[in-house]
Design brief:
Blueprint: E1 2-3, H1 6-13, E2 18-22, E3 25-28, H2 29-45, E4 53-57, H3 62-74, E5 77-81, H4 87-97, E6 101-104, E7 116-117, E8 135-136, E9 140-145, E10 155-159, H5 160-174, E11 181-184, H6 191-203, E12 206-209, H7 215-223, E13 229-233, H8 234-244, E14 255-259, H9 265-273, E15 278-284, E16 289-293, E17 312-316, E18 329-334, E19 341-342, H10 346-352, E20 353-354, E21 357-366, E22 372-377, E23 382-384, E24 387-389, H11 391-399, E25 404-414, E26 418-427, H12 437-442, E27 453-457, H13 470-479
Parallel strand pairs: 2-12, 4-5, 4-6, 6-7, 11-12, 13-14, 14-15, 26-27
Antiparallel strand pairs: 1-8, 2-3, 9-10, 10-19, 15-16, 17-18, 18-21, 20-21, 21-22, 23-24, 25-26
Helix pairs in contact: 1-2, 2-3, 5-6, 7-8
Length: about 475
């Protein structure tokens, strides 16, 4: 199927509708189309064409939006790099991308030697370009590097069809909503941020883009700027509710997607009391964001929901056999949102994509209604004396303690058992470290699942996508 730029389509259909806001500025679809056309001309002047790659190092900025859509009009690819990485970590990623041009936000240019300043890069253009090549569904649009919490990151190639299918499948689950206004606090170097950007463009909506998560700015956008949809993790959801002092959400706000793992039941109850519909999700870069999401009419916070309409999820055993409801195994995904493959990694691509199924290497199970419970990311699994321990299961129990703000469980080597779980605990303000955590866990967990130690922390280390950096926690244990 051939597709044209959604902003160009939007300009023809609703030219004066608001498409983007950032740092006090606003662009209608007509104005955004004009900015993108300037960037197309700047890219053409540098010889950028179909198949070429442009590397980008930036926090959220309006210029990232202009660049993303401009590259699409030329059939070129964007390779957004994680803005939290060091120069040493970025160097091999740029080498993998082999970009024709490298752009960076002014404050980050020193991390990418030879990069050009993003904010002013298209300023010299005198005549915009109306070029807008149609794209096949199979046309690559971005190279997104996995978070790299274990090993060297791999660049997942996400296509035009992946983005369109992700938006279509998500809308089928959430229900039709004309001109949504999505809060853009997720980074645009992350699949979640780009999925929101493209979803808005396909649906004639507006992205309320923030350069970072600031809880006061978030609540102002919800209360004053008419935000209808947002994406949070449990910690940011709690910060929003705390800052509001549980003040109810305005009627204009419809729902929030929650990623990054299960939400403690008390927090979900707080959200619902504040008229905030929080839908738990499961997704990954290689599937262009969401795979499963709770249905708005059935959300109970117990699972990550069923597959989005148009996607399939199955659970497989060690020999590849498909397992029935209630059986624990590997999560596999099939559908039009699954990536084309890994850049320059044919062996890794063949290992991950088999017979049309994406092997996520995450562990989970489906219930009788087809809803997914995620038990563990594959690399987080703890093997204790031959028993599989799932950190998420242990974390859910500990997080339900009234003194606990958040928790992460990792495995540490043990001479007797091979591995044992250790819990890193962040306490709520004003609470002393609870002496009854072990007893609390014994009420819900078998003895072999109990953490060997509970360690207090001021905050959990997280990467730019908000995921807990468990490798950092393991290193702290080894060093202690």
């Amino acid at each position: 199927m051939m597709n044209t730029c959604p902003v160009r389509e939007g300009t023809a259909r609703w030219p004066e509708a608001e498409a983007l806001t950032f740092a006090g500025r606003s662009w209608t679809y007509r104005a955004l189309d004009g900015e993108i056309s300037r960037w197309v001309a700047a890219l053409q002047a540098r010889g950028i064409g179909a198949g070429d790659r442009v590397a980008l190092l930036s926090t959220n900025h309006a210029s990232c939006v202009f660049l993303f859509f401009a590259l699409g009009r030329l059939g070129a690819l964007l390779a957004p790099l994680n803005a939290r990485l060091t120069a040493l970590e970025l160097a091999p990623l740029r080498e993998d991308v082999a970009p024709r041009v490298t752009l960076a936000l002014g404050s980050l240019m020193d991390r990418l030697p030879g990069s050009e300043r993003l904010e002013t890069w298209a300023d010299g253009v005198k005549e915009p370009s109306l070029a807008c090549e149609p794209l096949e569904d199979s046309a690559p649009r971005v190279v997104l590097f996995t978070s790299g919490t274990t090993g060297r990151p791999k660049g997942a190639v996400i296509t035009e069809g992946n983005f369109r299918a992700s938006a279509r499948c998500s809308a089928a689950n959430l229900g039709a909503f004309p001109a949504p206004r999505w809060l853009g606090t997720l980074p645009l170097f992350h699949v979640g941020g780009l999925a929101m950007l493209t979803r808005c463009a396909y649906e004639g909506g507006c992205l309320i883009l923030h350069d970072r998560f600031d809880v006061e700015a978030v609540n102002r956008a919800i209360d004053v700027e008419g935000v209808t949809h947002a994406s949070f993790v449990a910690t940011t959801l709690e910060r929003v509710l705390n800052a509001r002092r549980d003040r109810p959400m305005p009627e204009s706000f419809k729902l929030a997607l929650i990623g990054g793992g299960p939400v403690p039941t008390p927090l979900l109850e707080r959200a619902r009391a504040a008229r905030l519909l929080a839908l738990q999700t499961y997704g990954l870069t290689e599937s262009c964001s969401q795979v499963t999401t709770e249905r708005p009419s059935e959300a109970d916070g117990r699972t990550a929901g069923p597959p989005l309409p148009g996607l399939e999820v199955r659970i497989t055993g060690p020999e590849g056999q498909v397992l029935g409801p209630g059986r624990e195994g590997d999560i596999e995904v099939r559908g039009p949102t699954v990536m084309a493959g890994y850049l320059n990694r044919p062996e890794a691509t063949r290992e991950t994509l088999r017979d049309g199924w994406l092997r996520t290497r995450d562990m989970g199970m489906l219930d009788e209604r087809g809803r997914l419970t995620v038990l563990s990311r594959r690399t987080d699994l703890i093997l204790r004396g031959g028993e599989n321990l799932y950190p998420m299961e242990i974390e859910t129990v500990i997080a339900s303690h009234p003194a606990v703000q958040e928790v992460a469980v990792v495995g540490v080597a043990d001479a007797r058992w091979g591995e044992v779980p250790v819990a890193f605990v962040v306490l709520r303000s004003g609470h002393a470290f609870p002496e009854d955590l072990d007893t609390w866990c014994r009420r819900s967990l078998a003895g072999f699942k109990l953490p060997a130690r509970f360690l207090a922390m001021e905050a959990l280390p997280r990467n730019a996508m908000g995921k807990v950096e468990r490798t950092v926690l393991r290193q702290r244990l080894v060093a202690s």
